Amino acid sequence: MPSGRVHFHPPNALHPEAQGRAAHPGNTCQNPGAKINCHTRLLPLLAGLVGIGLVVGAWGRWNRPAGPSNGRVPFAYEADIWRTRHAEFVAAKRGTDFDVICLGDSLTWGWDDHRDLWAERVTARPTAFFAIGGETTNGLLWRVDHGELDGPPPKLVTILIGTNNRWVKDDAEDIAGGIAAVVARVRARVPTAKVLVLGVLPQDRRPRGSGRRVFAAVNKLLLPLDDGRAVFVRDLGGCLLEPDGELAVETSEDGTHLTRAGYERLAAALGPEVRSLLGE
Q: Alpha-carbon dihedral of residues 89, 94, 96, 102, nearest 10 degrees?
């Protein structure tokens, strides 16, 4: 069956905090005797930060239309690969009746590498993962408006989006507003389908990380979307955390994307929700 798989990955610079942790797991400059070595290490670090800034700036320009914008504004990426993948999704939807369509970014895309988990622990019904690495609410809004939900409606649409909006400087209200706009678009396109909105998953290793604070605020703002009838909001991120609140490397190697073990945890929490909404 068409999988809706996307092989596009944005540059690691989209996640500078995660990249910094991976490149510099410890601070060796606390030792006064290592002063020269530390300066030597700082030079490539500073150069790397400049490079990150340039790439993130370019990404922001690529993701944002001219003029002020926020998470509620739909637009199409200029990259050919993004448009190609969108066209593949539209063609897949026209050729196959899916019971479940999962919309999102690389976190949803990752399920395509773990379809066995999805089928065994979430649902065996025909499922499409229409997801692109680096996606924001803006791009997803445009995709929903341009054919990815055309044709016979699915029984369930899941939405997991918002992580990448943080890297184009959207605040919690912008991100939540963008997700709400996606929900409204999906409801307009497929009014008979149920919509499962997933809270943005935890980011950063430790509970006090900036990403945790932003996304906790986003997830609270999403709660009023749940009407108990057509739209259901579930914050399942806690299943990925250790008892002390840490996001372990075994669950997420970079503090954002999930490992196989991470998807196993998510499947255990998501499966009952999906099956209940499908009437299984």
A: 40
23, 58, 15, 18: which is closest to 166 by C-alpha?
A: 15
Q: Give phi and psi for 198, each to the nearest 5.
A: -95, 135
Residues 22 and 107 in one domain: no
d(CA 40, CA 258): 33
- Are both 212 and 265 inside the same structural domain? yes
Distance CA 241, CA 262 (A): 9
Q: How far apart are CA 60 and CA 206, in angstroms?
A: 26
Spot the catalytic one: 99, 145, 171, 254.
Answer: 254
Per-residue pLDDT of the chain (280 residues; tens, 9 = 90+): 333 343 333 333 333 333 332 322 232 223 333 332 333 333 333 444 334 343 334 344 444 444 336 899 998 888 888 999 999 999 999 989 999 999 999 999 999 999 999 999 999 999 999 999 999 999 999 999 999 999 999 999 999 999 999 988 889 999 999 999 999 999 999 999 999 999 999 989 999 988 899 999 999 999 999 999 999 999 999 999 999 999 999 999 999 999 999 999 999 999 999 999 999 9
Please, which residues bridge with residue 127 across strands? 100
Catalytic residue list contains 257: yes
Answer whether residue 72 is part of any domain. no
- Name the catalytic one among 15, 86, 105, 106: 106
Q: Is 254 a catalytic residue?
A: yes
pTM over 0.70: yes
Domain CATH number, residue 90 = 3.40.50.1110
